[in-house]
Design goal:
peptidoglycan synthesis, transmembrane, two-stranded antiparallel ribbon, mainly alpha
């Protein structure tokens, strides 16, 4: 009994509450989304099942302390790369092409599994290990040591990034980059190195964007890029001119969210038909049926979640733990900002789900794996009065 009380006293119940509320929001939105004639599967039951699996994943990770997480980080990273490589070489019967991408394994009796969702968490562990070990070995910080750290981060990130782009999966590739950028900023690398790189990247991105908008024929002539491949950008900037093609989802999403007004139409009272509303466009369902109030509650829960992880990273004095928290924050922040941003027209549409809300077993398991890391940090570190040690 005493051991059970000791276990429960070290569980982060604030995080449990936030995840429970996100689970309820997910179940309500998915229940409503699957009522359209487009779907025959019961996504709600499947989502509940994946949440139960996710709880098991959290319980598995919570037992691992920082030393154990460091030991498994490279095994997990290597396993993730192996799965991504298999996606390229396996036959189409096992790795079918969906929407022009080969990103999923088909496993009989289970369904589809997307390895890149797990690779995000494996990458966070690997980068946290690389950065913490680098600082342990290089106590004297110089431009040379910082530059070497940047190269190591780039190599570790570049391997999964190239494999993911082979699928191709631009959305997940952007998440991988956001994780890398977030961890570079917290790694302590000198701004004398980062500023020129950031400036150069901004110039390149601006130049590409300029040619996409004003000189697409140049890209087609010299780089072999087809004009139709920029359809998502054009439909994002002018969705109603592309309402019958690339802009269809965005125009319907804007109509759904706008028609929800302040309080929404009520659960099951949806009027706007929107394909794939149970996954990438789940926020449109929330906006229409629960209105501004319901949407604000969901966004507030994500703010609370990110704040809580930030506080966790600041409380612990273990640098490895801090880097893990930054990686998880970077991943979740990009997911939330991109998904909600694309449903309201602030950002181009990419196939990025809304964490813990959108339907998807791989996505939910990957996110629960990340939460397992946060639970582990909360479970294993201790704060002592008059001391900074763990």
């Amino acid at each position: 009994m005493e051991e059970q009380n000791k276990f429960s006293s070290r569980i982060d119940f604030s995080l449990v509450t936030i995840l429970l509320l996100l689970c309820v929001g997910s179940c309500l939105a998915i229940y409503s989304a699957q009522t359209t004639g487009q779907y025959t599967e019961n996504f709600l039951i499947k989502q509940i099942f994946w949440y139960i699996v996710g709880i098991g994943i959290v319980l598995g990770f919570i037992t691992l302390d920082s030393d154990q997480l460091k030991k498994i980080s490279w095994y997990a990273y290597g396993f993730g790369l192996f799965l991504l490589f298999l996606l390229i070489i396996m036959p189409e019967s096992i790795v079918p092409e969906r929407n022009g991408a080969r990103s999923w394994f088909i496993i009989p009796g289970i369904g589809s599994i997307q390895p890149s969702e797990f690779m995000k968490v494996f990458l966070i562990l690997a980068l946290a290990n690389v950065i913490s070990n680098h600082h342990l070995k290089n106590t004297l910080k110089t431009i040379q040591t910082d530059f070497w750290l940047l190269i190591k981060i780039g190599i570790v990130t570049g391997a999964p990034l190239m494999l993911i782009m082979q699928q191709p999966d631009l959305g997940t590739a952007l998440v991988i980059l956001s994780i890398m950028i977030g961890m570079i900023f917290i790694s302590g690398i000198s701004w004398k190195i980062l500023l020129p790189i950031m400036s150069g990247g901004l110039v390149v991105a601006s130049t590409i964007f300029y040619f996409v908008l004003w000189k697409p024929e140049f890209l087609e002539k010299y780089l072999g890029v087809k004009t139709y491949q920029f359809g998502r950008i054009y439909s994002w900037l002018d969705p109603y001119n592309y309402a019958s093609a690339e802009g269809y989802h965005l125009t319907k999403s804007l109509l759904a969210i706008g028609s929800g007004q302040t309080t929404g139409k009520g659960i099951g009272s949806r009027e706007v038909y929107l394909p794939e509303s149970h996954s990438d466009f789940i926020f449109s369902i929330i906006g229409e049926e629960f209105g501004f109030i319901g949407s604000s509650i969901i966004i507030s829960l994500f703010f609370l979640l990110i704040y809580h992880i930030t506080k966790t990273g600041m409380d612990t004095k273990n640098n490895f733990y801090t880097y893990i928290c930054v990686g998880v924050i970077s991943m979740l922040t990009f997911h939330v900002f991109q998904n909600i941003g694309m449903t309201v027209g602030l950002l181009p549409i990419t196939g990025i789900p809304l964490p813990f809300i959108s339907y998807g077993g791989s996505s939910l398991m990957g996110n629960m794996m990340a939460m397992g890391l946060i639970f582990s940090i909360r479970y294993h570190y201790k704060k002592y009065m008059f001391s900074t040690d763990i």
